[in-house]
Amino acid sequence: MFKTHLLIAWRNLRKKRVFALINILGLALGFACGILIFLFVNHHLQFDNFHNNEDRIYRVVTEERRDDVEYESAVPPGFAKAFQSDYDFAEEVASYYYREDWQIDGADEKNSKRFREDIAFSESSFFRIFDFPLVDQLSGRTLEEPNTAYITQSFATKMFGEQNPLGQNFILENQETIEVIGILKDLPANSMISTPIFISYPSIKAYDDFIYSGSWGGINGSLRCFTLLHPNQDIAHIEQTLIELVNKHRPRSKNVHRYKLQALSDIHFDNRYDGINVSLLWIFGLVGIFLIGVACINFINISTAQAFTRSKEIGIKKVLGSNKKHLFWQFISETFIISLFGMLVGLFITLLVLPSFNSLFELDLSLQSLLDIKVAGLVLTLLTFVSLFAGSYPGILLARILPTLALKGKLTQRDAGGQFTRKILVTAQFVISILLIVGTVVIGKQINYAVNADLGFDKDAIVMLSVPEDIEHIKLEGLKERIFQLPGVENVTACLASPGAGYNNWGTSLRYNNRPEYEEFSISAKMADDDYISTFDLQLVAGRNFRMSDSITEVVVNEKLAQKLGLGSPEELIGKQLELNGGFIKATVSGVIANFHDQNFHLDISPVFIAPQTNAFHEIAVKINDQNVKSTLNEIEQKWRQVFPKFIYEFSFLDERVQDQYEEEQRLLSLSKLFSGLAIFISCLGLYGLISFFVAQRTKEVGIRKVLGSGVSGILILFAKDFCKLILIAGAIATPIAWFFMKRWLENYTYHTEISWWVFVMSISGLLLITLITISYQTIKAATANPTKSLRSE
């Protein structure tokens, strides 16, 4: 029986190829999006789930409680040792200090390779907490020895080629020679740890005195503490006990720490501590369901609309003995065949777009990902769901047609049923399309606002050059002077980081004008020379720039500091004494600059001070003119290489850095454009199929109207008015929903655009226009046809 159903279904689909292709293409696009979204969501849901003791692995994080609570995924350098020695909560505790883009050089003449790589300084206990298996190791050697390292297999091949990497050396940051004592299996893609080089923790002494000292005076955002707890520990009790460490090591600090244990399974999904926003996964999942739903709606609409043309077929089958059950399963069989073809085409589309999808989200999904058992389960589930969901209603509707009306030719569209349901489903398609269009417009508007708004500093035509750390100030000044003499250069400054850089944010304590206590809030440090203000066009509103000296005696601050201190005007700050960084800096305020956005638009503007601490300069900012940019960049590189011949030259444009801070939003915008475009396209496919069917059914009516004097515009209005009404109804439904959710999304930003009324008008109008274009071809074709052909049989 099932074979017969499939055979009849195949014959029916061949007769109506156009409608079958419309359904197949719509379902294929929906399936392709659904599979890609599933791969994306599944990738994130599996983060760090491969460790044997994952339920006992925790990261220690810090809540910094000042006037506001700030969340830091790091701890003070002294925390790990104290946690391990003072308490018996854990089997293992490990410090992990990562650094990005450090220079790696071959250690001898045979290996002249030079490149940048992410590295980490880690204690040997780190590998007893996490399951990153060693493939090979030098006997008797451990990471407790200074200047030793474990490296991954991929890095070993990259660095040493076909040679045995064990016992080989490389040079780190042109300073220390590091010996390879172990080879790790390549780290999984779904791991929060991605560094390919793990250097012994004692080696940190040569690079960072603050971390090595075990200080409690502050936090470096790159330092992590991981622990493997004993079984059955009470997390709340441990966190309460850790208050003792705060009272012992930070008793008088206004920056009150609360150390929290973050479960390994929560790390990837907690956006307070650099994790992803889990709501994004829900949004993607819902969009995938919506797109598959839109494709199913197309099938239901076209199938129910065709009920009238299939009435005689159904009537004859009922007369010959078919019951509702047989007819129902015949239509389910037709749906299954269409769904099967749609799934096969969808899988092919998925393979085609997978490289672009990987590039957009920096993933490494492959054909093997599609062969995963979970993907196979998804495919079978979607096939079953779509076949039943999309086929059930048309099957029930068509199976209940009365054979007497069908065989006498007296069946009308009203008798066939489904008109009201079709209107509801088409309206649902339009609602989904409008929601996605509004979301795309609002996200794009916010990104444009953030990137192009007045940030309070000049970001155009400024080139940022990385310079080696701990370089003598005289070398830096010499490089500045050489670059400034180039004809295409307007200004040069050395600094810790640019304004609004989004990295190297150094927050520290502040005592104002010899007040008895430090302030409740922190102040952000922008270490730079006296050309910083002019290079970035920061605006002085009071006083003057600071003077360069061997020690910090003067600083420039921003207006925000006056506001946080409750002063009446910025001028009141001039000449006042500031004690900064726990008393290591004592200086006078020489000037006040206008506020600028020192962080992205998610966060409020911070109080800022700018001071000339030369040993903290990590970059040079070069303001160039727009004449001969390429030659100017080449000349800058030549000057840089003359001063730092052993280091890799890197530069970036500041405006691109600002834009990179909204990378997640840019990805969301790209996906919103794609999803809204697909939703509209799939909906238009359905509309095209419906209008083609309706035009064919009403050919004689069109002919009569033409004979009675109706023009092309009148015929177009005849077919378009119902769809336009449905779009307006959909707009009325979608507008408050879109406004609510986009308003919630914009609340993630301290500085954001507004949702203007024209966003909704434009979205609805755009959908109206696309709909009219979609239905115009078939409608105009019918309206311009010779009426004698359609009326010939009368």
TrEMBL record:
PROSITE patterns: PROKAR_LIPOPROTEIN. This is ABC-type transport system, involved in lipoprotein release, permease component. Residues 21-204, 431-638 form the MacB-like periplasmic core domain. GO terms for molecular function: transmembrane transporter activity. The chain crosses the membrane at residues 20-41, 280-302, 327-355, 375-403, 424-444, 674-696, 723-742, 757-777. Belongs to the ABC-4 integral membrane protein family. Pfam families: FtsX, MacB_PCD. It is found in: Cell membrane.
